[in-house]
């Protein structure tokens, strides 16, 4: 396991009911399939005292609806029709969560979303760089393997880049892996997932789950299911959407982890971030365990030495795919 894991608190499975701290969270894309349930979960989090919602349209209605939930937080909603609506939504934000973009449809990969979502993320990141450059940025919009480099390049061009504060939210892969293994073990356990957030770049580390025994066939099948769990949802929804509810849960969980860290707790999470773990291979971004504090990433933890040969091979296969996505995102901004 990771050397420091036992000394830290892993991300909570339920959201905080602690005494409220003064925290403003903005959701960009709040009226969408992920944005609405995500906004509801954030409204239920006692650590969020101000919830600011933005989307192209319908956001005031979502804000009014979510605002009736009886927790002590203020909800405001802005749309593109409002003068300086995006700017107002972002002013004073400590966390900005970006689920904006189009969802996948049957037969589409996350990378197929690039042409539309890349421009959306670029423009929203630009607004964040101008209005709240010190906020922590949580990017959900796919393809995360490219949209995180896009946001980073935008912040670099604006002269306000801080690698510790830009995160690709890959928590859904861990949530899925934990759920699938929970079916087998009869209890929910933590399953590390590293790499990226698309297909073969998603690498569950089943070797790190204490007490878990898998045959090669079971390991292969579960690995594939974690990697392509999103396709399972897209197909089940029969063209009417993608993984919105589970993604909202995972995004709210990650936001809660950052809020806990901001209040002084020691928290471990998993995220797609700027990292030098594979610098020799020319790879700049990778999803792994990170120790969080009030400034964002406090420490990036390396892969455990005890991962299996099978998992090491998966990492090596993922690196070329990650590099292509990374280059594609950075080139888009350049």
Automatic annotation (TrEMBL):
Query: E.C. number, please?
Result: 1.1.1.37
Q: Where does substrate bind?
A: 104, 110, 142, 176
The Lactate/malate dehydrogenase N-terminal domain, residue ranges: 24-168
Name the positions where NAD(+) binds. Answer: 29-35, 55, 117, 140-142, 247
Entry-linked SUPFAM superfamilies? LDH C-terminal domain-like, NAD(P)-binding Rossmann-fold domains
**Molecular function in Gene Ontology:** L-malate dehydrogenase (NAD+) activity
Q: Name one GO cellular component term.
A: cytoplasm
Q: Which residues form the active site?
A: 197
Instruction: Quote the catalytic activity from the record.
Output: (S)-malate + NAD(+) = oxaloacetate + NADH + H(+)
Cited Gene3D superfamilies? Lactate dehydrogenase/glycoside hydrolase, family 4, C-terminal, NAD(P)-binding Rossmann-like Domain
Keywords, comma-separated and alphabetical: NAD, Oxidoreductase, Tricarboxylic acid cycle
Q: Where is the Lactate/malate dehydrogenase C-terminal domain?
A: 170-332
Stored Pfam families: Ldh_1_C (PF02866), Ldh_1_N (PF00056)
Which biological process annotations from GO are given for this protein?
carboxylic acid metabolic process; tricarboxylic acid cycle
Family affiliation: Belongs to the LDH/MDH superfamily. MDH type 1 family.
Question: What does the record note on quaternary structure?
Answer: Homodimer.
* Protein name per the record: malate dehydrogenase
Organism expressing this protein natively: Coemansia pectinata
Gene that specifies this protein: MDH1
């Amino acid at each position: 396991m990771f050397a420091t894991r036992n000394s830290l608190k892993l991300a909570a499975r339920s959201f905080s009911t602690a005494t409220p701290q003064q925290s403003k969270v903005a959701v960009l894309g709040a009226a969408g399939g992920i944005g609405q349930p995500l906004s509801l979960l954030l409204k239920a989090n006692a650590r969020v005292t101000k919830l600011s919602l933005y989307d192209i349209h319908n956001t005031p209605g979502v804000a009014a609806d979510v605002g009736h939930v009886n927790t002590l937080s203020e909800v405001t909603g802005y749309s593109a029709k409002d003068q300086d609506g995006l700017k107002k939504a972002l002013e004073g934000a400590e966390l900005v969560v970006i689920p904006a973009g189009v969802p996948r449809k049957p037969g589409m990969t996350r990378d197929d979303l690039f042409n539309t979502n890349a421009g959306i993320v670029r423009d929203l990141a630009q607004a964040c760089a101008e209005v709240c450059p010190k906020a922590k940025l949580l990017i959900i919009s796919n393809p995360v393997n490219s949209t995180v480099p896009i946001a980073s390049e935008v912040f670099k061009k604006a002269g306000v880049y801080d690698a510790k504060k830009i995160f690709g939210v890959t928590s859904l892969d861990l949530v899925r892996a934990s759920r699938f293994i929970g079916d087998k073990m009869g209890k929910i356990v933590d399953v590390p997932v590293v790499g990226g957030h698309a297909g073969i770049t998603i690498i569950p580390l089943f070797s790190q789950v204490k007490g878990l025994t898998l045959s090669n066939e079971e390991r292969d099948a579960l690995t594939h299911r974690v990697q392509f769990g999103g396709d399972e949802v897209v197909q089940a929804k029969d063209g009417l959407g993608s993984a919105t509810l589970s993604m909202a849960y995972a995004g709210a969980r990650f936001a809660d982890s950052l809020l806990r860290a901001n209040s002084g707790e020691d928290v471990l999470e998993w995220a797609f971030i700027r990292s030098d773990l594979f610098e020799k291979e020319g790879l700049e971004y990778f999803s792994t365990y990170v120790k969080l504090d009030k400034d964002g990433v406090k420490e990036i933890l390396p892969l455990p030495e005890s991962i299996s040969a099978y998992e090491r091979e998966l990492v090596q296969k993922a690196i070329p795919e990650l590099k292509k996505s990374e280059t594609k995102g950075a080139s888009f901004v350049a």
